[in-house]
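Consider the tokenized backbone below.
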């Protein structure tokens, strides 16, 4: 008896299986919320897919008029037209079979179960496969998910800090929204507000690393909470989003350095975590009402 291959990533299976006959482009994002994406041009086929520890979202980008797809995820065959923008979920750990007729260009997003756990924390369903089953019964349209999948695809190529922040934020929003669409009731939060000791850890971490890139996942880990729980609890406790608070803290440090030091503004911007001088100037003006140079002239200690 031939032992069945155990695939860890759907993208690896896609490259090495019968799907390899189709033109495909792969993108692998290994940041704080890892995921993979595939854009593939498909024609007629009848293939079987293995179970993998990843949730897969499939969205046609374009399709011929006669294109149809049928799928069996263990509970009988279902079928639908491949309408651009309509989405179908393949939950993690589910074997499936697919019959496709006609041409289509498909965008696939694969989200590891570990990424779901990192984002959701205590809100992670006990049975994520069963929880997402309603979104595997038929295709569905959701403009927010469409936009987020396209955003993730385009931003996954960029390597600067703001793009990485955008990717983490988009993935967190997408996961939360998809679970809500599946009808999953959120578990009551045991602690709605942010405990003082957790907030203190966040303050200490930021003060020690203010010169570095800091994203929402890093802040959540400093607090010891999931991204979703931390974001909600922080805003309730502090009154602003973590990102807005972090920007204000960077500017507070910059104001201290301007007032009491003689470093060039470009060096102050870098030491406060701003990679681009233009970004520093824009945020400084938003917080203080003045550009850095003008504020320096008015407030520097002589």
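A designed sequence for it:
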């Amino acid at each position: 008896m031939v032992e069945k291959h155990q695939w860890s990533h759907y993208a690896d299976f896609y490259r090495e299986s019968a799907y390899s006959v189709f033109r495909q482009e792969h993108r692998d994002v290994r940041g704080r919320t890892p995921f993979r994406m595939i854009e593939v041009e498909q024609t007629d086929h009848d293939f079987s897919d293995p179970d993998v520890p990843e949730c897969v979202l499939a969205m046609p980008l374009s399709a011929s008029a006669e294109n149809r797809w049928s799928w069996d995820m263990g509970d009988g065959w279902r079928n639908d037209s491949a309408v651009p923008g309509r989405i179908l979920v393949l939950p993690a750990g589910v074997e499936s079979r697919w019959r496709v007729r006609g041409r289509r260009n498909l965008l696939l997003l694969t989200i590891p179960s570990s990424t779901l756990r990192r984002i959701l924390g205590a809100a992670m369903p006990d049975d994520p496969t069963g929880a997402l089953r309603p979104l595997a019964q038929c295709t569905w349209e959701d403009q927010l998910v469409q936009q987020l999948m396209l955003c993730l695809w385009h931003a996954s190529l960029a390597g600067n800090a703001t793009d990485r922040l955008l990717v983490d934020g988009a993935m967190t929003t997408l996961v939360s929204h998809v679970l809500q669409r599946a009808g999953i009731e959120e578990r009551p939060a045991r602690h709605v507000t942010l405990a003082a000791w957790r907030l203190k850890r966040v303050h200490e971490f930021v003060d020690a690393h203010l010169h570095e890139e800091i994203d929402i996942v890093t802040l959540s880990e400093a607090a010891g909470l999931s991204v979703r729980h931390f974001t909600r609890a922080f805003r309730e406790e502090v009154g602003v989003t973590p990102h807005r608070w972090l920007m204000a803290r960077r500017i507070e440090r910059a104001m201290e350095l301007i007032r009491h030091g003689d470093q060039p503004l470009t060096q102050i911007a870098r030491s406060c975590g701003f990679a681009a001088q233009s970004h520093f100037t824009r945020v400084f003006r938003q917080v203080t009402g003045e550009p850095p140079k003008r504020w320096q002239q008015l407030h520097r200690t002589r």
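The chain is about 45% helix and 20% strand.
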